[in-house]
Amino acid sequence: MPESPIRKLAPLAFEAKRQGKTVYHLNIGQPDLPSPQVGLDALKNIDRNVLEYSPSQGFLSYREKLAKYYAKHNIDVTADDIIVTSGGSEAVMFAFLACLNPGDEIIISEPAYANYISFAISTGAVIRTITSTIDDGFALPKMEKFEELINERTRAILICNPNNPTGYVYSREEMEQLQAIVKKHDLYLFSDEVYREYIYTDFPYVSACHLKEIEQNVILVDSVSKRYSECGIRIGAVVTKNEEVRTAILKLCQARLSPPLIGQIVAEASCDTPESYFRNVFDEYVERRNCLIEGLNNIPGVYSPMPMGAFYTVAKLPVDNAEKFCRWCLEEFDFEGETVMMAPASGFYATPGLGTNQVRIAYVLKKADLERALLVLRKALESYPGRV
Predict the structure, then answer these.
(1) What 3-state DSSP class applies to 270?
(2) What is the phi/psi pair of residue 41, to 5°?
(3) pLDDT digits (tens, 9 = 90+) for 328-362
(4) What is the pTM of this model?
(5) pLDDT digits (tens, 9 = 90+) for 44-70
(6) Could you give the CA distance from residue 58 to residue 62 in angstroms, rounded to a whole number?
(7) Separation CA 257–CA 85 (nearest Å)
(8) CA neighbor of 175 nearest in space, from 140, 148, 147
């Protein structure tokens, strides 16, 4: 099991703060924006004498509300197509366990969310990667690259759309190309779409569930963590029309008994979040994104493409080794008592040696803090002994 590139430097950050330094956390996708008031009110007003088990597939009332939420995004599912999970992470793990045998292969485009690799190792599956490049804005590689990797052990393609860690958003053309290759080889298409609220392109959001020719092949992974800034309630979902897959996943859900009771209460109430909340959050992230990307590209030797979704970017730094630099920032550097924490991007690549001069940065701080963090990063790069 690899260490998390997002969390493995946490002890260094803790020690830096113990020494009195201010640490700007650009390493983790923990939104700082308030959770919806309707969810917070539901949490504060829980009126129960017993905190009981919920059904293994989650409360029907919540799944019915989720189905109405998906309908707003032109995703046609019923409550029976939805299984509630303990966060999006459990949704990915259960999808892998239900659909893949040990030794089966999944094709993903790297860099990719680091825990996909951990979940594959946990379930005995094998990750096969196709590399997207920063110079191409991390666009989806050509379908020919996917075809080259498909063999008798290939069972699935996994995408994250919008993408974590790159912020890339797949176009309709790219999604239809994926549909063709999934249909041709009868593969599963695992689609992690937890950032659908944060798409900054002119073209519309295309879900894997919009691909009608492969409805039985699509396994959608979702979560309220980013949508409502509710990472801590640990509520996710698996959504699929494939009854056989749902039956297999439900066995795993029964073995872990039930998803979080209190989390579902909050998530169900949050389904009534007004549109004004999303507009305000969306506008805030666009402002932060523009501030961050402009600031990064104004630092000599630094380059970041413009992300079109989520709230991350991968940036190239003029350093010998990004992980060494990130450690150095926490252990040895400060500017006026402040430093930055970033996630080394090499941990988002399965191929050894890739991403060694890149970092993932999450723009989950308010604009004033981002501007200050950019200044601190500039000063760190000017002082770093391994600058190239």
Answers:
(1) helix
(2) -65, -40
(3) 999 999 999 999 999 999 999 999 999 999 999 99
(4) 0.95
(5) 999 999 999 999 999 999 999 999 999
(6) 7
(7) 11
(8) 140
